[in-house]
Specification:
Chain B: Its EC number is 3.1.3.16. The complex is a heterodimer of chains A (397) and B (322). Chain A is an alpha/beta fold and 397 residues long. Chain A is built from 14 helices and 9 strands. In chain B, strands 1-5-6-10-12-11 form a 6-stranded mixed beta sheet. The chains are: A alpha/beta (397), B alpha/beta (322). Bound molecules: S-adenosylmethionine (SAM). S-adenosylmethionine binds next to helix 1 and strand 2 of chain A.
Amino acid sequence: MSAPSIPNLLSLRGTGRGRGRGRGGGTPGGTSAATGSSHDSTIQGTDTDAALSRLSAVELGYLSDPFATLFTGGQPNQPHSALPPPRRLPIINRGTYTRTTGIDLLVDSFLSSTDASRTRQILSLGAGTDTRAFRLFSSPSSHTNISYHEIDFPSIIARKQHIIQTSPSTLSSFLYQKPNPSNPLNSPPHPTSSSFSFAFESDGPSRNNNNTLHLHPLDLRSFPECPLSRFDSLSSAHPTLIISECCLCYLAPATTTRILEHLGRLFPQSAMVIYEPILPHDPFGKMMVSNLAARGIVMPTLTEYPTQQSQEERLRAEGGFTEVRSKTIDRVWEDWVSPGEKERIDGLEGGLDEVEEWKLLAGHYLIAWGWRGSGMGKGLDIDVSRGDEGGDGDDTE
Amino acid sequence: MPSLPSSVDLDECIARLYKKELLAESVIEAICAKTKELLMRESNVVHVQAPVTVVGDIHGQFYDLIEIFRIGGWCPDTNYLFLGDYVDRGMFSVETISLLVCLKLRYPDRIHLIRGNHESRGVTQSYGFYTECVRKYNSANIWHHFTDLFDYLTLSVVINNQIFCVHGGLSPSIHSIDQIKVIDRYREIPHEGPMADLVWSDPDPERDEFSLSPRGAGYTFGAQVVQKFLSVNNMVHILRAHQLCQEGYQTLFDDRLSTVWSAPNYCYRCGNMASVLEVDSNGGRFFNIFAAAPENDQVKDMQMPDKMNPGGEPGALPDYFL
Ligand SMILES: C[S@@+](CC[C@H](N)C(=O)[O-])C[C@H]1O[C@@H](n2cnc3c(N)ncnc32)[C@H](O)[C@@H]1O
């Protein structure tokens, strides 16, 4: 069984065909967003997949996330609609747990290493219906002054916004919509203009925690014609954490390079966390590419940044991050999950039988992170502060 | 104990199963009951003579099971020993276990089935067999018939008084093979103890002794454990399955133990090779290596919703982290 070949996007670099699949519909300059709508809906569908994986991990007790059900039902007010939530396999649940807690750890490190009395920005690319912002805002550690920005396709953002606005008490207890005159409440978001802002307050004694969530409908392929700087609520002055949790991998390498460079210019004091698949060329990786292709999913950056090392290099060279680290999900589990927590997780589904398969699967995904600017380093240099050696590109076969 | 009703023609059942057709629930019930009677008479340690072809984990990969018969010979022309893990993970656990049980009942001395850790009520609820039974038969009845039958499967086989065969591995509470014979095996696989260890344990070439297994059940065991077991029991080799090997097999401890893995491209995901181990009448061992059967490509097509298959087959392709 051989994997279908992925178009060599390196050769397209700079020519403006910023699309993953060889439809040839791109217009010069890289704004090819209007074409290939069936591929677009497949990619947007990956958000549902991620949300259902999250729900499976939550329902089985891997993760605690009261917001996971909000975004997985058909109807916003009936989170549990007709279909029962799928139960993912134990290795998938463990992977969802590991990736989520790994990124959470880096987010917490960012927040604790920046001045809590001033605005800190988090910018999540392709956030989908991810619940991290809500978990953060409702967490007992009562974070303050977080300006959380999420970017995704207009249709995904519109749905999320609608669910938030009509959601039951889970959210409304600590969330209200900020008056935002430029965004009339009931009009659907326009692809290139309207963002939505929500303010949050915690239930605790300090009610004015000054946390806000901003939803920006934007097709990331429209960089740099639609630069982020046009979102008023985003400011270059604040320390900023950029997250791409399985998002950049769906874009053409030329596009992601532009995005990283753009972000580098925009946020001089920033850190970035990316979560991506790697190793497309070994037998497992080839099957991964071909199985995903059978579902219509193509990850163009996978061949461009196939290893742990090349992912680190990408953050350094394209993102301009002076310090860069990475860990495969396998290592995140080994190194960052405490023995007690491992035991708890192992007990949830009666032990993990598929140890070899877990190593293979989890060895094919990584979290890479980098930072630059003063005051950012101490918190994010987690390898050093946790005293482990940290693998360097030598995981898996 | 009911006997096989005259309406059930075993050869016809086998012919249908080779074509991947499902048997009626009542037929499965009768066949399981009859096979139970047969298995009940087997010891916890069954002795067989070579030549015999030893097969590792199948995990519902029906097309690859057929490929094994194509490569290694059909039953009963070739003697077979299966080391367990017939169900879970693959798409066709029901077809796979139905066929193997029918073959066992039809040719009891030509084919032997050892119990694997997936032949269990608990594990099959997490790893797919339960769901598949309910999906294909609209009820959990046949899952009950099969999992009740699993309680009767033997735990180990000895080939030519030389080769000790088990699904997982050794146990710190078993020194002599005679200790296996006294285990009360007619039950669900317990969480710990010798019976659990036999189906869950793994060799660890980095160690000498027993230590805790990362699987959360059974142990890992090292070189000294293996040597001691072989010399106490006068055996030359341990043959087991249970662990995915990219090459389809693995030999450890100076050729004292080997793993045979028979699910190529495991879970339609891992891209690995598979093998069966042919033991000749002199005890010589030969790994016959094979790749996934071409029919597996149909599995991929099933996932894509189309006119023939609206909605697509759920779970036809493995999940990834998206
Ligand atoms: C696999 S989902 C991940 C969602 C979320 N980050 C998580 O981890 O749960 C990928 C997300 O990236 C978004 N995405 C992909 N391409 C995009 C683009 N060109 N512009 C905006 N969003 C995009 C998809 O809509 C989807 O929500």
